Amino acid sequence: RQRGTEYVMTITPATVTVEQVAQMIDHALLRPELTVRDIHQGCAVAAKYQVISVCVRPSDVPLAVKLLDGTRVLVGTVIGFPHGSIATAIKAAETELAVEQGAAEVDMVLNIGWLRSGELDAVEADIRAVVEAAVAAPVKVILETAYLTNEEKVAGCQAAERAGADFVKTSTGFAPSGATAADVTLMRASVSPHIEVKASGGVRTLDQLLELANAGATRFGASATADILDDLARRRESAVASAST
Q1: What is the pLDDT of residues 6-28, one digit of tens each?
Q2: What domains can be seen in the chain, in order of their start residue?
Q3: Is 153 among the catalytic positions?
């Protein structure tokens, strides 16, 4: 199928490997009630499946870095999470500390109220402060699409690109709704090709992930990582078995 002038292959269980999908997943460990034991277990899952990263709460960054030392799994964290309304200077300081402690990626929540108010210069400055504080660490900007009109989603994506972000991201997973294919398609069309789209919030099954991938997402926030990747492995084994009979 065509996306603009670029040919894009439809992704199905037959055309993508478990390893390839694992390298698209940020294993999410963000719920407030998670214990230290839960972080240990979550990092073990991330290491077992060799996902691209874990995304942990800021206070868990040092522990996750220690647990994943010697693996290829990156440690990411969240900034201004989940409401995006803390002062810009605090977001920048939170980012600096996270990177110093070993965070390789940061997912920041933009100021949703400012975006809904049309204060785009302020939104852009808020994002830019985090981008600058992150130095070389990629920054993913969470729009929280559940609260936005399509026009606001486009404006938020474009502000993120102007500010130097690397990704635009749908949701925190803590709003009334999460990622949809329609939002991913809109966000993909709203930014330049080098800006990636991360789908997060409610991505619990392989079919959901594949639908969002085919809409243009290249990274996914998920806590049901094992279920998604085990399902893909089963389907690929079944396809191989069917082809050999």
Answers
A1: 445 689 999 999 999 999 999 99
A2: 16-238 (3.20.20.70)
A3: no
